[in-house]
Amino acid sequence: MPPARLAPVAVAEKTFKNFIAGQWVDSAGGATFESRSPANGELIGTFPRSTAEDVDRAVEAAKDAYEDWRLVPAPKRGEILFRFGQLLIEQKEDLAQLMTREMGKVLAEARGDVQEAIDMSFYMAGEGRRLFGQTTPSELRDKFNMSVRMPIGVVGVITPWNFPIAIPSWKIAPALVCGNTVVFKPATDTPLLGERFVGLLGEAGVPAGVVNVVHGFGADVGDRIVRHPDVPVVTLTGSRETGVAVMRNAADHLKHVHLELGGKNAIIVLDDADLDLAVEGIVWSAFGTSGQRCTAASRVIVHEAVYDDLEARVVAAAERLRLGPGWDESTDVGPVINRGAIEKIHSYTEIGRSEGANLLTGGEVASGDGFGDGFYYRPTIFGDVEPQMRIAQEEIFGPTTALIPVRDFEEAVRAANGVPFGLSSSIFTREVNRAFRAMRDLNTGITYVNAGTIGAEVHLPFGGTKQTGNGHREAGQAALDVFTEWKSIYVDYSGRLQKAQIDTAT
Ligand code: UN1
């Protein structure tokens, strides 16, 4: 099948389409929605507000394409991903500029987001020549045993706006190298980046129908993907509530569901920590991407001996952060994603106040000069927070963090673990024994020592314990388990019927 050659999306273009079976097509219903910059309200583009009918067409295309794609040798599938990674390198600056406009993160972080996709594409491209299974001895003579990874079929990919290039790559790159085809619903806050992502896959040589994009809302597009009987795998990064609904709705068809959900990640600072380093780690993890990472540090658990000192330093550092549009190189913290986010974040400021926590800085919408049409919230720190307060239990997904004083290491670990989520954790200490105890006892999928809670690399498993997910991991080798099914194969070359467990005297 010849690869679909796609014209690059022109910058001036403002009306976009779905991508189904290698064609850019309007949605069946004709309704649309807008993507606007959270920094200044600029119109980024108008996108189809698709319906179940559009999803059905995309699934049909992906099902057809699967019949050939699964037979393309995995190293060849990998070569396409190598080309895709190369195109991402060439387009890195362009994509980063677009990202800062479409979802607001500062340029350096937007470049990092694209870099993560480059890294993931190259990593998964290499998997094309591995996808290792096992060969084992047989208990019988003249018999050969092995296990191989098999593709599963059409994968439904539902991604968030906070890593609009990186997270699609975490899901789509492994899905493709394993031999699956894809129906992709990008976040409604970042549809243009989703569109660009798929355009580049087409340029890299992904055949028509192998990756399809259906724009639109969760209630229409996402829901149909999750319920469609011909989509056996669904992967979602999103909120806990969405994850629960996806799992429930996918249950009727016993689908494979991969979920990467919320976090309430803690940084522990012990009395022997390098405080300068800890402050840097806290500020980067709490306020990077305006706190809108599932790995963000929304709790800082501090030994009482250094609490006052650390509190003063973190507040001072937060107050030095410059708020503004992400494309301005002097900005440290960009806007949050939309009006709903501002409202939710501010409601937690009110909750924190009413719970009796001490608002140390921030706690307000930034308005006035340069902020007028955007969604800017001041970096916010609460002090003297108790572990059971709602601001220390619930995911806020904004630039708000809570300082929690504790008496010793054990109390710190108890507080860190005392939340429903388990994505990332961190400890600042110079004492090796306590560092190793923390690595063992912090109940999260990721633990950092002497670094913040963010900065996962693509070749290690990514995901969390408890209500952060449902036990799966993405990235690294672990991702292959989401997108393949094991098949065990027994080849008998004895020329007679040998019976396992019965012919025991061989
Ligand atoms: C997310 O917030 O959903 O480790 C992903 C990190 C990034 C990925 C975050 N590499 O913070």
Concise summary:
Helices cover 37% and strands 20% of the residues. The protein has 506 residues and is an alpha/beta fold. The model is unreliable at 1-11 (pLDDT under 50).
Estimated helix fraction: 25-40%
Taking all residues together, what is the mean pLDDT? Answer: 96
Shape: globular
Q: Which structural class best describes the helix and strand composition?
A: alpha/beta
Please give a structural write-up:
There is one protein chain. With 506 residues, the protein is an alpha/beta fold. Helix content is 37%, strand content 20%. It has helices spanning 52-69, 74-102, 107-127, 166-177, 191-204, 218-227, 240-250, 275-287, 304-320, 339-354, 409-417, 432-441, 478-483; strands at 18-20, 23-25, 32-36, 43-48, 134-136, 143-151, 154-158, 181-185, 211-213, 233-237, 256-260, 265-269, 297-303, 358-361, 380-383, 400-406, 421-422, 424-428, 446-449, 465-466, 484-492. It starts with 17 loop residues before the first strand and ends in a 14-residue tail after the last strand. 51% of the residues are buried. Mean pLDDT is 96; it is low at 1-11. Bound molecules: 2-aminohexanedioic acid. 2-aminohexanedioic acid binds next to loops.
